[in-house]
Sequence to fold (416 residues):
Amino acid sequence: MTDAPPTSPSPHPTAPPTALTVREITEDDLDGWGRAYSKGNFVPYRTASLERRRGVFEPGRWLGA
Amino acid sequence: MGTFRGLALDLSVPGGALLPVLGVSSLAVVPSHRRRGILSALMAHGLRAAVARGEAAAVLHSAEYPVYGRYGFAPATRHGGFTVDVTASGGLRPDLDTSATLREAAPEEVRRFGPALFDEARRGRAGAVSRPGWSWRRRTGAALLPGEEWEAPTVLVHRDGAGEVRGLVAYTVDGKWSDRVPDATLTVTDLVATTAQARRALWAHLLSVDWVRRIEVPDAAPDDPLPLLLRDPRAVRPLPHPADCLWLRLLDLPAALTARTYPPGLRLALRVADPAGHVDGVWLLRTGADGSAEVTPDGGPADLALDAAALAALHLGGEQASRLVAAGLATELTPGAARRADTLFRTTAEP
Fold:
C-alpha cells in the first residue's frame, strides 16, 4: 500500500517528497525488518533476534517502509 | 528503511473498563533516510489500520518528547518510581495490621496466576496497559531478548484467608557491602496487589529483608500510598524519571470517551481539531446519573476547543483542562468550561 507524502508539520526541514511505500510485512521480511530496526536504533543486529521475532510475529501488525 | 510494530493491547480507564488499544512499538527509521516523512507515513498507516480493527486509541512510550504530539499523542500518565531509605523510614506504622503468610512462588506459578492477578489489580488504576503472554514469559525468565541476562528475582505471594492470591512482589538484592557492613539495595521488579492488606503485608516483608539499606521501586503509581504507611514518609524520595510515562492518542472518540466513568449530570461540548481526521469535530458529552456517558457528534456551539493531543492528555484524568487553557493548549469558548471539564475528567486515583 502506498501512502501519500506526509502533511504533518515537522520541527525539522524535510527532504523533497519521494515515492514512499508502506506495507504490512511477511515473515520472509523479518530479517530485513530487524536489520532496519537495529540500524534505526543504533544497536547491533543479532541474528538470534530473528527466531524470537518469528515467535511473536503477527501478520498485519508489522509494517515496513 | 523504516519499521513499525503494532501490539494488540488494552488500557484500563477510569471506572475499571478495559479499552482495546494499539500499542505502537519498534518505530525506527534508518539514519540515512530521516527527515523524509517515513515516520509520518508509518504512523498514518498504522493508525488507520488500528481504526479498521476497532482499536479505540493508541499508546506508546516516547523516547523523545517533541516527536509524537504532531500525531495526536500526549502524555496521559506520569512516572512515579521512588527510593526508600529503610533505616530512616522506621518501618511501617505500628498501628497497621501486617499479619500475613507470604510464600515464595516459582516462575511457572507466577505465569499461571500472575496475569489474572495483574488484570484485576489494574482495573483500579487507569492507565495500566495489559501484559501480553510474552511479557510474563520474559518477566519469569522463560523468554529473554537476545543478549539479555537473567537474574532470577525472589517472588513472594500473599494469599487471603480463603487462599486466594491477592498480591505478589518480585525483587532482587545486590548484596553490596560498604566499610565492612551490609549496604545492599533491594530493587522491586514487580509489585501487584488487589487489596490494601496484601500491599501492606508485602511492604512489611520488603522493609525487613536483612542487609538491605535502601529499596528502589522504578515503576510505581505517582500517588502510591507507601509514604503514608511509613513512620517517616520523608524516607521516600522520587527517582529522577522523565515526567511523562504513557502517551495516548484517541482514535474512536465515542468509544474512548464512553468507556470511562464520570461524575453524574454534566454536559460539555468539545471542539476537537485533528488534522488526521480521526477525532475531528464538535462532540457533545453528557453524563448520566450512573456515571456513564453519551457522546454524540454535535452541530451546535462548543464549550471548549482543543486538539486531539490535548484531549488525550485529559482522558485518563492525569491532566487538567484549566492547566491546558493556562498553557494555551485549550481555549474556553463559554465561561467556566475549563472548570467544568476539570470536574468531568478528574479521577480519584492518579492514572
